[in-house]
Amino acid sequence: MKTKIILTAFVLAFTVACKNEKKSKEVEVEETVITDGEDTLVEETVTPVENNEKHEWSYEGENGTQNWHKTHQDCGGDHQSPIDIVTEEAEKADLGEPHPSYKEETMIHNVINNGHSVQFNFEPGDHHIFNDVRYNLKQIHFHEPSEHTINGVRYPMVIHLVHKSEDGQILVFAVMAKEGEGSAPFNFLESYLPIKKGETKKVGKNFNLPSILPKDKGYYYYVGSLTTPPCSEGVNWIVFKNPITVSKEQIEKMHQSLPDHNYRPAQPLNGRKVLMTE
Question: 30 CB contacts (<8 Å, ≥6 apart)?
Fold first, then answer.
């Protein structure tokens, strides 16, 4: 009788182990940090182990922009960003002037080089109200040259200010930069450069965020997507009409920490409306 009980227990344990082993082959639960250029999102994903390879992406070569849709389905969507904004085709609308509640002293937590851009992450506090929705400022990052074009013109650099609402909606400001007089705010940001790929530097200092916005805050507005994988759609874009100026030296210093041409080409408008302030 004792031998029978031991044998039964062994069979039961073996069966449970087999079931657990089979289950581990079917799914894997992991916390995936997606640095998508527009926001750093942390989400729990359940994916088949056999399809769980990390999908690398870049701006050129085999994993370049032309192939993003092969590994990130949303990148092949109909409402993608960036776009070429044609002023004559944009509709004038009473959008109101953007009044982000940025303080002159906004705490920067750290700066990272995620391999695709240089990204400054902010402590909670600053936000922008748009269409009665509060969007909290998360981070700013850089593309060289700009991703959006205005009347076919691509600027030497663009700053993306990424905001996120409590329910996950995303709002991005695009501030174009052209070569000209040097920018004092850029001197502060670039004091933490160069920064190597994969490196993080603690900042822990205040930054005058309003100082990097253009004085004339006229803008274009449309709904598009993140401009990097996973290319999620439904992103609210505010592209300022007028650029700020940065010096040639400041552009070159930022370039040292960015991959060459870290921009996505313009995507089809596909019937979307672009609105603009009067």
Answer: 44, 45, 47, 52
CA distance readout (Å), 119 to 140, 142, 184: 6, 7, 18
Sheet strands (E) in 131-209: 133-143, 149-150, 157-165, 170-179, 200-207
CA Rg, the chain, in Å?
A: 23
Q: Cα(56)–Cα(155) distance, rounded to whole angstroms?
A: 27
CB atoms within 10 A of CB 61: 8
d(CA 171, CA 129): 10
User: What burial class does residue 29 get, using C-beta atoms within 10 Å of its C-beta: 0-12 exposed, 13-18 middle, 19+ buried?
Assistant: exposed
The set of catalytic residues is: 116
| CATH code of the domain occupying 76-276 | 3.10.200.10
Q: Which of 113, 137, 115, 277 is nearest to 207 (CA)?
A: 137
* pLDDT tens by residue, 178-231: 999 999 999 999 999 999 999 999 999 999 989 999 998 899 999 999 999 999
Pairing of strands 170-179, 244-246: parallel
Confidence band, pLDDT 50/70/90 cuts, at residue 128: confident
- Give the chain's mean pLDDT: 83
Burial class for 189, CB neighbours closer than 10 Å (0-12, 13-18, 19+)? buried
DSSP state of 167: T
- The reported pTM is 0.81
Rounded Cα distance, 138 and 127, in Å? 9
pLDDT greater at residue 2 or residue 138: 138
